Structure prediction request, 258 residues.
Amino acid sequence: MNVMAERHEHEISTGARPVGATTETSAAENVQRMFDSIAPKYDLLNHVLSFGLDGWWWRRAAGNFRDVLQRPEAVVLDLCCGTGDMALALMRHRPRHAGEAPLLALDFSHEMLARGKQKFASHNIIAIEADALHLPLADNSVDLITSAFGFRNLANYDEGLRELYRVLRPGGQIGILDCNQPEGLVGILYNLYFKRVLPKVGGLISGDAGAYTYLPASVERFPRPKRMLEMIREAGYRDARWTGYTFGTAGLYRATKP
Prediction:
């Protein structure tokens, strides 16, 4: 990547900016309204638009944290949980016995969380409606924080990483699963699908064309792995690494609070 490209990536990587949003506050409000709007068809579209790969991505990501998940006292937070599928993937590795700490599932979209609550009914999961940049959690109180395809929608990525750092206990881990813009031939095909096919199908099924125009734009804006890893390290984490999934179209960022 040349110097100009690196500078451009740094400039566009501060946080999500839906069309019409000029500040972090307006960006967050726009994203919140957008996800409330598409909530009824969100699960269906996830499965259709990812060709069913979304479930595999969630399960694969969750499996990386088996050790901490199997500790019954571990406090686990699924950030930007949406309708709860990542939280359920994490629960596959939680022990089932008295004294097990509940898993916390947090999102600021009321409509998305309402659908998640329906899935959580038979699980030890507590749903929390709150902003990921202002977590209602004490300092040094969480052992593991995951986020599946939600971190990309934060209005400020640096602030998000710092807020996760604040609530993590020393030795706690983050796992951010999100989309990525691949390079080469895969990138060309990815762009063709993501920018031309996906918005049309997503808009047709959801009734909100804007939301599925925002999706490829948000992926293009999101930091590439090299820059994202730099941001994670700059926020104070150690052992930062990225594992690409499905030809690099998605991937998992992992890091630990010292």
Notes: Residues 24-49 form the longest helix (26 residues). Residues 3-256 form a domain with the Rossmann fold fold (CATH 3.40.50.150). The first strand starts at residue 76 and ends at 79.
